[in-house]
Amino acid sequence: MAALRTCEQPSVGNLEMSINVFDTNVEKNQTQGNGEDEFDYSQRAQWLRAAVLGANDGLVSVASLMMGVGAVKDDIKAMLLAGFAGLVAGACSMAIGEFVSVYTQRDIEIAQIKRKKSMQESSGDYNQESDREKLPSPCQAAIASALAFSIGAVVPLLAAVFIRQHKVRLAVVAVVASLALAVFGVAGAVLGRTPVVRSSLRVLIGGWMAMAITFGLTKLIGGTTGI
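The structure assignment produced for this chain is given below.
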């Protein structure tokens, strides 16, 4: 009987060890699988926000500016010159504004990291490198905003440059700007995993309102003042 117990005990221990190893491997595989399948889309938030905002602003601002000038001037040169000036000024403004805004956010987060460090340093749980990697980049956001604004602003300029008839030019600018706004809305929704229809309609309706208000007010003021 003693010999029998001696033989049975190692077998039970080996069985428990095998089960533990199997469970550990299963949990490890599940963790790795989840890491591969899941993606933190919040990591895209910084550059996606700057890019989509810049492109929409460039398109809406320059298209509205051209529509406003076209409401009182038939000359194509006046529309193109106004659009180009809006492109340059808007790209510079977007870059500077985004740089200052993100740099302020970075300073706030650095201050929070320092407070977190002082509180957790004693426990040994603090990981400074991890926190540093999450800090926003002001230069990245500024460059993305300026480039995106320029890309969006070029669209109505290219749409109007080869059309000589005034009314046709205005219609083409409005149609092309609407199509581009829809494309930007879809692209932003797909990249950010948000509802496509809702995002596209929000961008499209906002662009229509901006162009209509600019055209109407400029037409009203131009007719009143005789410009």
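Interim note for the steering committee: The chain has a mean pLDDT of 77. The helical segments are 2-37, 45-72, 76-120, 128-133, 138-160, 166-192, 196-225.
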